[in-house]
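$ ./design --mode recover --in tokens.txt
reading tokens...
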């Protein structure tokens, strides 16, 4: 008989699992977690082409300016700052026979897939700033509808402090595999059909769409959701209140603010590197054939790094593991200042090191959001998991938008142009400084923001015990009609 993971069972687990047991007495089967994590593949597979290849291809192949592309990405992310919390709040309030999360994931996947068709298989005659802007708007709306409930659901699978790290690790490994997949494709195409950016874009789009069709049913069937009448243990019905007051919860949660700002910095650093690496390899290093291969190498080691950082998190705690990884990335990015044109050996070494550290912040910060939602539920009695994960989604998207919307215009202002036959030495140095110092400063800020984070394993165990005691002392709550 298949194991059912319900809110009632979560309460029993919280009561019976001693502190430090790491949830081993009751852990979801690996095959279920792998199926659930499958949706991370199309989500991550789209992320890299959008951040790395799409801006460069739409600039070089379709003639859109760096400034226009940077502005469009920035506008879309600012829109996400409004739409994502709204989707999170509505997901928390949804009640259907399919659950709270499934309807949103399914509907968002359809919209996401249609937008991918438009962006990855464009007609040259149709491409314009308006076309790209509309495509990005629909893609990010569908992405939010799919990703935010998915992240919230991932925090509900396990109530254990380290169990959530395990869930996030499966998602991180699946995401790293997706990034590896979409990096292999353009690398192969660059060797077989050099300069065919249209084929490169179409191949990455096909990978996103095929993985979406395969992953969606696997994820939706991996775990049962709460029935319409259930709510998490120790939870009172979510009060219907004005949307503005609901969204203000994000601002008032001090711990959530720290994690969100830290994640914004992580993503801004990664986005700056991703958005400029094609230009850096092609124009600064003079090695265009390495443009895709370097990122491919990084994510080969990134696949290995996810489980390694999970073990570090088990041993030292989530926030300490995140800080260690972020400080390592500061040193790695500063090392880029020593790279010289044609100096591939040092660049390869730094790329491998980047891959080995890249999972630290993303993995730990995501897992910490679910712990913060538990602490909030203990204080208020209300389950705001999707709302909090929607804010986490905003920080990720805002960080990427900031990177593209600031880094691309900045290197242009410093004199760099991908259309120029020859860039001046000053322009190339400007490209180097933005590529190296931007991520270094961002990762340093991320580490500083979560130093001394108080919600560690011991404190979370106290929160879970208190929630379990409340659930045992009161009738099981029902969702608001």
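writing sequence...
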């Amino acid at each position: 008989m298949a194991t059912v993971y319900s809110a009632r069972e979560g309460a029993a687990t919280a009561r019976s699992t001693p502190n430090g047991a790491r949830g081993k007495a009751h852990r979801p089967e690996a095959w279920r977690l792998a199926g659930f994590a499958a949706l991370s593949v199309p989500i991550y597979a789209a992320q890299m082409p959008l951040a790395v290849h799409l801006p460069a291809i739409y600039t070089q192949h379709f003639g859109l300016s760096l400034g226009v592309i940077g502005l469009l990405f920035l506008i879309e992310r600012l829109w996400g700052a409004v739409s994502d919390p709204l989707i999170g709040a509505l997901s928390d309030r949804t009640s259907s026979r399919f659950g709270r999360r499934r309807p949103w994931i399914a509907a968002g996947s359809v919209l996401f897939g249609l937008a991918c068709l438009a962006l990855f298989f464009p007609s040259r005659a149709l491409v314009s700033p308006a076309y790209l802007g509309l495509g990005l708007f629909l893609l990010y709306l569908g992405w939010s509808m799919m990703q935010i409930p998915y992240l919230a659901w991932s925090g509900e699978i396990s109530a254990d402090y380290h169990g959530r790290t395990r869930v996030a690790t499966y998602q991180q490994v699946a995401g790293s595999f997706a990034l590896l997949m979409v990096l292999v494709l353009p690398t192969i195409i660059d060797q077989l059909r050099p300069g065919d950016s249209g084929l490169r874009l179409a191949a990455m789009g096909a990978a996103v769409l095929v993985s979406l069709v395969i992953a969606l049913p696997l994820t939706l069937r991996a775990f049962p959701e709460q029935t319409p009448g259930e709510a998490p243990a120790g939870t009172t019905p979510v009060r219907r209140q004005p949307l503005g007051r609901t969204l203000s919860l994000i601002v008032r949660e001090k711990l959530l603010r720290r994690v969100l700002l830290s994640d914004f910095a992580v993503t801004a650093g990664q986005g700056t590197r991703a958005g400029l690496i094609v230009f850096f390899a092609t124009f600064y290093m003079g090695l265009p054939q390495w443009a895709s291969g370097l990122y491919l190498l990084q994510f080969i080691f990134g696949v290995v790094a996810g489980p390694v950082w999970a073990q570090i998190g088990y041993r030292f705690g989530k926030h300490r593991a995140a800080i260690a990884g972020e400080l390592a990335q500061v040193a790695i990015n500063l090392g880029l200042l020593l790279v010289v044109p044609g100096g591939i050996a040092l660049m390869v070494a730094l790329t491998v090191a980047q891959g080995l550290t890249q999972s630290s912040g993303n993995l730990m910060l995501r897992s910490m959001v679910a712990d913060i939602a538990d602490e909030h539920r203990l204080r208020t009695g209300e389950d705001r998991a999707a709302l909090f994960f929607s804010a986490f989604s905003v920080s990720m998207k805002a960080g990427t938008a900031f990177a593209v919307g600031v880094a691309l215009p900045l290197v242009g202002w410093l004199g760099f142009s991908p259309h120029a036959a020859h860039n001046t030495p000053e322009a190339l140095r400007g490209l180097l400084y933005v590529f190296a110092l931007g991520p270094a400063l961002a990762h340093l800020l991320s580490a500083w923001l979560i130093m001394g984070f108080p919600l560690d394993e011991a404190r979370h165990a106290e929160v879970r015990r208190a929630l379990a005691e409340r659930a045992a002392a009161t009738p099981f709550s029902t969702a608001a009609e």
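exit 0
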